[in-house]
Design a protein that fits this description.
Elements (H helix, E strand, L loop, with lengths): L4 E5 L5 H4 L4 E3 L3 E5 L7 E5 L5 E7 L4 E7 L7 H17 L10 E6 L8 E6 L2 E6 L2 H5 L1 H12 L5 E4 L16 E4 L6 E4 L2 E4 L15 H10 L4 E5 L5 H8 L4 E6 L2 H14 L6 E5 L2 H4 L9 E4 L11 H18 L4 E7 L6 H15 L3 E7 L18 E7 L1
Helix pairs in contact: 2-4, 5-6, 9-10
């Protein structure tokens, strides 16, 4: 391990690392012994020279992301072990065994002890997103580790890191296949068929994290007029149709998203006239929809990616939910979400509650929702809880 530079913490600053929090903040560092570039592997030591962990260096307030609290060399065998552990979790919860589902998250950053790395599995294709330079620099080794763990089940690995890496990093990432090539874009989730565009679509191509919430929506949809705002590729829309909705309207500002939504609906319900899609800005569409819908889904993109815009984001959530409360039919049901990591569960609830008070309607909480088990939250890293949702009954 001597080939790696040493990061020595200030006295007393080792406490969070001893509690297995995977981030070292720049203000906690006393000195660095050796030359360090962004993305380099470094060893963290306490002020009394105790070993604390090993991780990737970064530029910014989070100076090191720890991927091991054991004194291990991060070679191919090490990463095979990491991927095997992640795969074992998905196997234990049954996601690798379902005949009607072949899409799941294989690696969820800190939740799987691999901070800075996301991997989603789409029917044989693993889509990798590095959020740290350190993970991006070892992407070829990570691909080799995935091949070992997934074996014949893996037919392609696509690196889609160009938009998730720090924009100030002195690298020039280009998205592309690390292994194999495009075989199929069609996947299955609970028997529903999806076309996924991992090359051009948002995130890794599909919002895998809403799987269980889509299933719940299906249970509430029978006989209802449903509005799916920020529909992206239409996941909630055809879950509502599967549940027996009377009609479903999908809305997104992106023409491309609407085209993919229509394709996905046609895959599952060919010729079904219950669905109609609109490429319109959300607030424009919601200006005058009073009493048209029994069930509304609000699943907007992250309103806040940094704490400095948190207050602005909370105002956005309040405005959006207030509009829905004012427009939904009496006895309607609202599914509302935030996927912003910097927006806490309490922040989100307070924004929605403020919107409820503005509407002056009687509103009850039916469910409090979160991310599914293949997006695990490291108990030592509560920041990993990013998806918050409420299902509300509006009288």
């Amino acid at each position: 391990m001597s080939k790696f530079s040493k990061v020595v913490l200030k006295k007393g600053k080792e406490e969070s690392v001893l509690r297995f929090h995977p981030w070292v903040f720049s203000g906690a560092i006393d000195r660095i012994e050796g030359s360090v570039e962004e993305g380099d592997v470094v060893i963290i030591h306490a002020s009394d020279d105790r070993f604390l962990g090993i991780g990737h260096s970064a530029i910014g307030s989070i100076a090191v992301r720890i991927f091991s609290f054991e004194n291990r060399t991060p070679d191919l065998d090490f990463w095979i072990g990491k991927f095997q552990s992640a795969y074992n979790l998905r196997h234990k919860i049954g996601l690798t065994l379902r005949s009607n589902t072949n899409v799941f998250r294989l690696v969820h950053g800190e939740g799987d002890g691999m901070p800075g790395l996301i991997v989603d599995f789409y029917n044989g294709t693993a889509v990798l997103q590095a959020h740290s330079v350190g993970m991006w620099l070892i992407r070829e080794m990570l691909a080799e580790a995935m091949k070992v763990v997934l074996g014949d089940r893996l037919v392609a690995i696509y690196d889609k890191s160009s938009k998730t890496l720090p924009f100030k990093a002195s690298i020039e990432p280009v998205d592309g296949y690390l292994f194999g090539g495009q075989i199929t874009r069609e996947v299955l989730e609970d028997g529903n068929r999806f076309l996924v565009d991992w090359e051009e679509g948002q995130k890794t191509g599909f919002f895998v994290d809403q799987r269980e919430n889509r299933r719940l929506l299906s249970d509430y949809s029978f006989g209802k007029n449903v509005l799916n705002m920020f529909c992206y590729t239409g996941g909630f829309s055809f879950s509502a149709m599967r549940g027996g909705a009377n009609l479903v309207h999908s809305v997104d500002s992106s023409v491309k998203a609407i085209e993919l939504t229509n394709q996905n609906v046609e895959l599952n319900f060919p010729g079904d006239k219950r669905h109609e899609a609109f490429a319109v800005e959300a607030f424009d569409f919601m200006k005058d929809i009073k009493d048209k819908y029994d069930l509304i889904i609000l699943d907007p993109p992250a309103f806040a990616k940094h704490k400095n815009v948190l207050n602005q984001a909370l105002q956005g959530y309040k405005k959006l939910n207030s509009r829905a409360f004012q427009q939904i039919r009496p006895g309607g049901i609202l599914f509302t979400f935030s996927c912003s990591q910097v927006v806490t569960r309490t922040n989100f609830r307070e924004a929605v509650f403020s919107a409820a008070a503005i509407s002056k309607r009687n509103i009850r909480i039916l469910h409090q929702l979160s991310q599914p088990a293949d997006h695990p939250i490291n108990i030592y890293h509560p920041e990993g809880e990013y998806l918050k949702g409420l299902v509300l009954y509006v009288e």
